[in-house]
Amino acid sequence: MVEPMNWISEVVRPRIKTLFKRETPENLWVKCPDTGQMVFHKEVEANHWVIPGSEHHLKMSAAARLKMMFDEGTWIDVALPEVAVDPLKFRDEKRYVDRLKEARAKTGLQDAFKIGFGRVGGLPMTLAAQEFGFMAGSLGMAAGEAFVRGAETALEKRTPYVLFSASGGARMQEGILSLMQMPRTTVAVRRLNAARLPYIVVLTNPTTGGVTASYAMLGDVHLAEPGALICFAGPRVIEQTIREKLPDGFQRAEYLREHGMVDQVVHRHALKETIARICGLLTNAATPEAPAPAQAAA
Q1: Out of 10-24, 195-209, 254-268, which region has the weakest mean confidence (pLDDT)?
Q2: Alpha-carbon span 143 to 269, nearest angstrom
């Protein structure tokens, strides 16, 4: 026996729901990790991924970083060398080659680095930005080659080399081939030192593991974004090992600044001006924004 009014619930109500349904994009809102505040995605993107009000610095793509830093219309991408794909034929829950395919489709990059050459505040510079969205910005053969190519570009063009680090450490799927990139990148930094070219590191959230143990902590000047986690082993691992609670803010940018491991904590909006000023001083080049010195009267 058919229940009375069944047609109302089966036909009319679904049609009403469809009529008044509004599709909401999943990325329409961004939630602030500090305050829980909901902010329009486009507003956060326009603000260089800094939450208005709380000033919480969200992760930023490598492409967005280069676009933010370089003077408009002055920069080009540096072509990166190709490397062997999955020489160890590594497999965990997935094949490594499948993880690479997914990361490339997600980010549009071949690996976890993007290198650009152009002008920042009018000064020629070579910039390297790590892409955390590509397998947590992990350091493998391709990333190591990219860093070295960036250093070689700086040497060829005689420019400062500026790194924006963002990484979970060495890429375990490449084993010893990944660990080999630590000394290789260190040698690249030493070549910059020998050529007396500034190497500036901007530590962003997070910078950890083998990246911290190599090129990310070898800069002539170390800047950091507010609240960035900067460490070798993370706080959770340390707490589980020593069975003690760590101090508030431990391993964050401000804590490292207080203890002499970072030179300055800089808001993202001030990075371009700060880096241009530092590189201008280190290369004895006047930035275009600075007024020309007054000429002495004859």
Answers
A1: 10-24
A2: 27
